[in-house]
Amino acid sequence: MIIVHGAGSFGHYYAKRYRISDKPTKSTKHVVKIRDSMQLLNQKIIKIFHENHVNTFSFSPTSMYNNKKIPIDWKNILQKSISLDLIPVTFGDVLIANNGFYIHSGDLIVHDLCKLLNPKRVIFASNIDGIYQNPEDDSSLIPIINNNKNNLKFSKLHYDVTGGIKTKINQSLKIANLGIDVQITNGLNTKNLSKALNGEHVGTLFVGDNV
Q: Which of 69, 95, 172, 189 minimizes the number of CB atoms within 10 Å of its CB?
C-alpha cells in the first residue's frame, strides 16, 4: 500500500491566495509558505498513523521528482519500503522545474505512481460516497464510469486550485486505461473504506478502454 494525501485547507489556501497552480512561478516567498504548510500537514498525518501503530515512511515529492517525472530508481525504493512493512506516504506539493516552481497535485502523483508501479487498484478517499449525476440527488450515484464520462457536469471547490473533482475523474479514467481498477468512495465512512480496501465495489468504479 502507498498513501498519497492532498493539500486540504493547508496548501490550497495559500496556493489560491498567491495564485499559484500548475503554471510555473518564480515567486520564492510564496512557494516557501505553501511548502511549509504542506510539511506541517504531512507531519500531522504521519503522527496520527504512528499513534495508531501504523508504520509509515514519508517521502517528499521534491526528492522523488526530476523534471516532472519519477525516475525508475524509485520503483525499487518504494517496493523495498513496502517489503520492510512500511507504508510509503507522499503528498501534493510544490516542485521545481527548469522554468520555476509549480504545483503537482496528489491526484497527478497517484497517476505517476501507477505508471511506475502498476498496482492492482487505486482508491480515492473523499468526503462523498462517489460520483453523482446530480450532486443534489443522493439517488443519482453512478456505480460505473467509462471513458465517455457519462455526460458529467463538473464543479470546482472554492479552495481547490488543482482542479477539484474534475481532475480526480480525469486522472481516474487515465489510471483505469492502464488496466487498474479505480474507486472513489467516502473516506469518512470507515465501513465503506474498509470494504474498498478489501476489494469490494463501493462508491464509483472507473473502467477504461483497456480494462
A: 69
